[in-house]
Amino acid sequence: MVPLGTPAAEFRLPSVGGHTIALSDFSHATALLVVFLSNHCPYVRHVERALGRVVASYTGRGLAAVGICSNDTERYPDDDSDHLAEQARRARFDFPYLIDETQEVAKAYRAACTPDFFLYGTDRLLTYRGEMDGARPSNNVPNDGRVLRAAIELALDSKPVPAPHRPSIGCSIKWRPGNEPA
User: What is the pLDDT of residues 126-157, one digit of tens each?
Assistant: First the structure.
């Protein structure tokens, strides 16, 4: 897992809404949640509406969020811009959803799966990386985002999120052939 205290990697990516979004666009936020997502992954589909609710519940409280899809859309066409826009509507994402076509941003963040959550404090140093909650498509654990919510609360209060952090579980990033991280 990425070490706590790692700075947020710079990015400048197109959104499914047609705008270009950069890390600097979130400089006003007390905390920033960067989530690597996809449309086709059953783990993401299982949590997407809950994620939309979690982020929306922090509107006006200092949290900014951004979703990023880095998957190879030639082999996984359900993760193309049109399908991601449909997912954003379905899940009620009120945050930008970006397309990392080169996959360089996923590499910079060392994203491993979808969903993969990275939470940064005001200083844009990593304070939490891990799961949203214990819910999985195959279990009956409540899909309420309780682990992520606890981390967000601490980040908004400029407090560290105590370890250990349980890694997120999901579908691997779908790397283009020959583009896999070293």
Answer: 999 999 999 899 999 989 999 999 999 999 99
Q: Say how far apart CA 20 and CA 8 lie, in whole Å.
A: 18
Asked if 78 and 39 touch (Cβ cutoff 8 Å), the reply is yes
- What is the SS3 assignment for 23? helix
Please state the domain count of the chain: 1
Distance of alpha carbon 93 from alpha carbon 51, whole angstroms: 8
Give Rg (Cα) of the chain: 15
Report pLDDT digits (tens) over 1-21: 899 999 999 999 999 999 999
Per-chain mean pLDDT for the chain: 96
What are the two backbone dihedrals, phi and then psi, of residue 166, each rounded to the nearest 5 degrees? -80, 130
Contacts of 37 (CB under 8 A, 6+ apart): 44, 48, 67, 68, 69, 87, 97, 114, 115
Residue 160, C-beta contacts closer than 8 angstroms, at least 6 positions apart: 4, 127, 154
Give per-residue pLDDT as tens, 76-119.
Answer: 999 999 999 999 999 999 999 999 999 999 999 999 999 999 99
CATH number at residue 161: 3.40.30.10
Which range marks the domain in which residue 32 is found? 14-172
Strand, coil or helix: 92: coil
